[in-house]
Inverse folding.
């Protein structure tokens, strides 16, 4: 990738910025899920019909195992006959490729049960027609890693609309999350919940949440991530909430920044402090963290732990006082002083409040007022907005509640999709399809586009050729379909946060070899994210154990191959013996052999699974590849490798403030002659040869 030295000319000051950023999932992918790869470099599957199952269906394409991109040759609503989950990761589902009005998934829940997933320009409108068979979310996914949800529309849930949380490195961006169902038939009674948000590095930005009874959102930790929760919530628009609105955050680290809260008819009718609530922050109490018999449960590690919160720049529409001071009434006044085991004190009040934001990955950030306009213009499956999204935007802009369910619901809160009556119809909008463009080699790129871009319409392999930025040609095509939308999303803002420069970052990082990082494999080679592999000569296939562990047969040498430029400086092993009676032990790590007497032993799974943890000292770093093995019984283990880059000569920016990278600029040479006119700022760096240029008033060296 090209290195860019940028000299910003501003009066007499000169600022030098150098980076070689890892490739984002797509232009406009931001937040903690910025670097998800999805199906990049894999095969292509075409969805050719709207059937629930069978060849050519979405379920059939999702069920494939290899890294893959799923494109659509048809538009319309897919009415599922059972729940649909992504169990095999490394997949991109590109809703923007559908010819016509796009795709909607309805009837049963859709869940993300795998790692490394990209979902773009899709609708998930559940409905309660099948409430007797499920009580699901519109879009769900927990305890996974590397997830990007972009420009999706999610509504009519029986439980929460969007509960994609408890994941690591995840973004939900530019989505419309609307109209959760209140009295839909859920066995626990009334719901109407927007969603649970949280995770170990999770971003939720530029989303519209509207017409929910509560949980807008629920800041919700998961047991798997509760001790490492880091959530960045910025530039969201929240309209017409009732009930509790936004609340939770037990023990979490959270940025709540530049969001736009607009009370609606339901909010005003509800009345009270919830009308100016930014978030009602809680903790895990003793009752919550213990079972009925008084024994600690899975939440006990966070007992009485107050989180850390950076809250600033949020607007409460119509309330200048809380807009000016987010904390006094928007946060502090919302805390239940009697409901936190007496732990809310003046000290707590000070320590929970941060003066600077927590770390987050690069995200274009607008003022709350600009974000309000941007979200209403671009959020949701906006390549072709359907009637429901259009009404949601209309309601938000005009302070309306177009639909209300019966049974005493507050304005705008519905019980069923049938409460939505519009244009002489109700419930799911008609999505018209068009004829898909000819794709002779079935590589996901139309013949005409391939010819225009110098590709062969009869060569399916050219889909994985890459441009100078590193995107495959298939990605270039898919990104081009929504380039104007993404440009509009990121204009008029500042790109703030961290970027990832794996090749040059000198900071040691921990890499976990577990079910979370596993991608694919056969009986000889298991592939993990970020280029790690494990091989064995005994044809032992991959299998998972409890607690995200991987099973390793006793007496079999396993070889870990590291990505180029990495070395391991420390190893931690957690696990148990997968046997009812026998124990297991570490027998080799690198060149060093061990016996059971060395003490690295793991207990039998009976009477209960107890995870033993050992930090194994290394005499010198492990490079290239290394061998490990276990003796005794079969071992179930998680390996955590502390790694560092061998070459650390680069510079990594920890915070970027930049103009819109997609703005149109002129490029001059040192003689002042225009060499490129009205080209996107970001594109200029990919097409210019080495040299010295002036771009938008900035001196730039490309080398």
């Amino acid at each position: 990738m090209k290195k860019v030295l940028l000299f910003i000319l501003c009066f007499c000051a000169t600022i030098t910025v150098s980076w070689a950023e890892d490739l984002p999932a797509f232009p406009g992918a931001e937040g903690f899920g910025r670097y998800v790869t999805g199906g990049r470099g894999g095969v292509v599957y075409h969805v050719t019909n709207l059937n629930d199952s069978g060849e050519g269906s979405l379920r059939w394409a999702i069920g494939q195992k290899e890294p893959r991109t799923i494109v659509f040759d048809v538009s319309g609503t897919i009415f599922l006959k059972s729940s649909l989950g992504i169990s095999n990761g490394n997949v991109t589902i590109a809703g923007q490729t559908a010819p016509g009005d796009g795709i909607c998934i309805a009837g049963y829940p859709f869940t993300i049960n795998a790692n490394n997933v990209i979902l773009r320009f899709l609708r998930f409108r559940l409905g309660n027609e099948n409430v007797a068979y499920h009580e699901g979310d519109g879009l769900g996914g927990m305890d996974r890693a590397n997830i990007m949800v972009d420009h999706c529309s999610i509504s009519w849930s029986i439980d929460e609309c969007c509960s994609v949380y408890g994941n690591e490195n995840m973004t939900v961006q530019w989505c419309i999350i609307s109209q959760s169902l209140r009295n839909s038939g859920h066995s626990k009674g009334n719901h109407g919940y927007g969603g649970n948000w949280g995770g170990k590095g999770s971003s939720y930005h530029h989303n519209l949440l509207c017409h929910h009874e509560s949980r807008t959102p629920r800041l919700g930790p998961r047991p798997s991530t509760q001790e490492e929760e880091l959530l960045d919530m910025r530039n969201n628009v929240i309209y017409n909430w009732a009930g509790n609105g936004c609340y939770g955050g037990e023990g979490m680290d959270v940025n709540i920044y530049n969001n736009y809260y607009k009370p609606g008819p339901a909010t005003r009718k509800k009345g009270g402090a919830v009308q100016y609530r930014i978030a009602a922050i809680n903790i895990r109490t003793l009752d919550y963290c213990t079972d009925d018999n008084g024994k600690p449960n899975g939440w006990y590690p966070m007992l009485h732990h107050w989180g850390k919160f950076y809250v600033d720049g949020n607007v409460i529409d119509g309330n200048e006082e809380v807009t000016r001071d987010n904390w006094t009434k928007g946060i502090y006044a919302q805390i239940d002083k009697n409901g936190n085991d007496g732990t809310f004190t003046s000290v707590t009040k000070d320590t929970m409040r941060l003066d600077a934001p927590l770390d987050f990955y690069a995200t274009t950030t607008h003022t709350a007022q600009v974000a309000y306009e941007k979200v209403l213009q671009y959020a949701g499956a906006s390549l072709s907005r359907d009637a429901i999204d259009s009404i949601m935007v209309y309601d938000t802009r005009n302070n309306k509640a177009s639909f209300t369910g019966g049974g005493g619901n507050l304005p705008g809160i519905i019980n069923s999709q049938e409460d939505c009556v519009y244009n002489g119809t109700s419930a799911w909008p008609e999505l018209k399809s068009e004829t898909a463009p000819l794709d002779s080699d079935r590589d996901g790129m139309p013949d005409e586009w391939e010819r225009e871009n110098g590709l062969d319409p009869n060569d399916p392999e050219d889909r994985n050729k890459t441009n100078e930025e590193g995107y495959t040609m298939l990605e270039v095509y898919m990104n081009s379909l929504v380039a104007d939308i993404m440009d509009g999303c990121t204009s008029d803002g500042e790109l703030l946060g961290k970027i990832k420069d794996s090749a040059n970052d000198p900071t040691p990082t921990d890499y976990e070899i577990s079910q979370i990082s596993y991608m694919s494999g056969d009986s000889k080679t298991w592939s993990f994210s970020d280029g790690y592999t494990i091989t064995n000569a005994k044809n032992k296939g991959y299998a998972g154990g409890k607690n995200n562990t991987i099973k390793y047969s006793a007496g079999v040498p396993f070889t870990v191959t590291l990505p180029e430029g990495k070395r391991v400086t420390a190893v931690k092993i957690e696990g148990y013996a997968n046997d009812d009676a026998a124990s297991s032990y570490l027998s080799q790590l690198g060149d060093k052999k061990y016996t059971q007497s060395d003490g690295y032993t793991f207990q039998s799974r009976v009477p209960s699974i107890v995870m033993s943890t050992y930090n194994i000292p290394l005499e010198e770093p492990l490079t290239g590849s290394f061998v490990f093995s276990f003796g005794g019984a079969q071992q179930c283990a998680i390996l955590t490798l502390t790694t560092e880059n061998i070459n650390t000569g680069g510079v990594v920016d920890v915070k970027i403030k930049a103009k819109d990278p997609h703005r149109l600029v002129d490029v001059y040479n040192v003689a002042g002659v225009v060499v490129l006119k009205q080209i996107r700022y970001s594109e200029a760096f990919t097409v210019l040869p080495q040299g010295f240029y002036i771009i938008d008033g900035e001196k730039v060296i490309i080398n």
